Amino acid sequence: MLQKRLAEGFEALGIRSGDTLLVHSSLKSLEGASPADVIEALLALLGPEGTLMFPTLSYLHSNRNNPVFDVRRTPSNVGAIPEYFRTEYPALRSLCPTHSCAAVGLRAEYLTGAHHLDDTPCGPNSPFRRLRDAGGKVLFIGCGTRPNTSMHAVEELSRPPYLFGPPVRYQMTDAAGRTYTAICVSHGFAGVSQRYERLVPLLPAGGYAAANVHTAFCELIDAAEMWRTADERYRADPLYFVDTAE
């Protein structure tokens, strides 16, 4: 059974029962698998004490040209698995117009419940910071480590010159249907391209693992080690994790 094989592969990679896990994913890398196969395999492995979280970023739908975000209805734009998870599971989704996450499990409320208190996409109350504080892990399924949204949260500590764009006034609707106005600073990245895969060679032993799971090359990063290592590098060289335009 595919779900069982997936769970065994993820366990061999280093995911354990009770883990708090953020997952970036490419469904097409897992031949023959459905979003439900991936999600059910991970939920079975994590167990009742664990927490599963996906990024449900919506910056293509909610932005300065369309400054409206409904946590219940605004779709994600980061792949089939996160959108299936958001719509088909009883997931709690954080209230952020561009960089929300959805989570199920023991720590779901802790991870997602205070994102609206930040006025930047990945601030101190974001699921990305709270994943670190919860001793979490980040799994990449067939997508490489370049799409590592948690690195934006690390960037917000040292605020490299390319990071922030202008503030945007959004109309926000929460899970109870209450609508209000909130201002959130956008991420900029003008003139640079992100190269977060450069983090991997810097990580210490025990902070990174990689293996093939079914047909996907998967990578697992310890969130606390990622934050420590990346923050040190940002402060030494603010442009280390980007390429600048010629």
What is the topology?
Layout (H helix, E strand, L loop, with lengths): L1 H12 L6 E6 L9 H12 L4 E5 L12 E3 L9 H9 L3 E2 L7 E5 L2 H5 L14 H7 L3 E5 L8 H9 L5 E10 L5 E9 L4 E3 L13 E6 L2 E7 H14 L5 E3 L2
Helix pairs in contact: 1-2, 2-3, 6-7
Task: Explain what the structure shows.
This protein is α/β, with parallel strands linked by helices. It is built from seven helices and twelve strands. It has helices spanning 2-13, 35-46, 80-88, 108-112, 127-133, 150-158, 223-236, and strands at residues 20-25, 51-55, 68-70, 92-93, 101-105, 137-141, 164-173, 179-187, 192-194, 208-213, 216-222, 242-244. The strands form three sheets. It has a seven-stranded mixed beta sheet with strand order 4-5-2-1-6-11-10, sandwiched between helices. Strands 3-7-8 form a three-stranded mixed beta sheet, with no helix packed on it. A two-stranded antiparallel ribbon has the order 9-12. The longest helix has 14 residues, at 223-236. The protein is globular and about 50 Å long. The mean pLDDT is 97.
Tags for this model:
single chain, 246 residues, alpha/beta, 3-stranded mixed beta sheet, 12 strands, 26% strand, globular
Can I get a quick summary?
This protein has 246 residues and is an alpha/beta fold. The protein has helices at residues 2-13, 35-46, 80-88, 108-112, 127-133, 150-158, 223-236; strands spanning 20-25, 51-55, 68-70, 92-93, 101-105, 137-141, 164-173, 179-187, 192-194, 208-213, 216-222, 242-244. 28% of the residues lie in helices and 26% in strands.
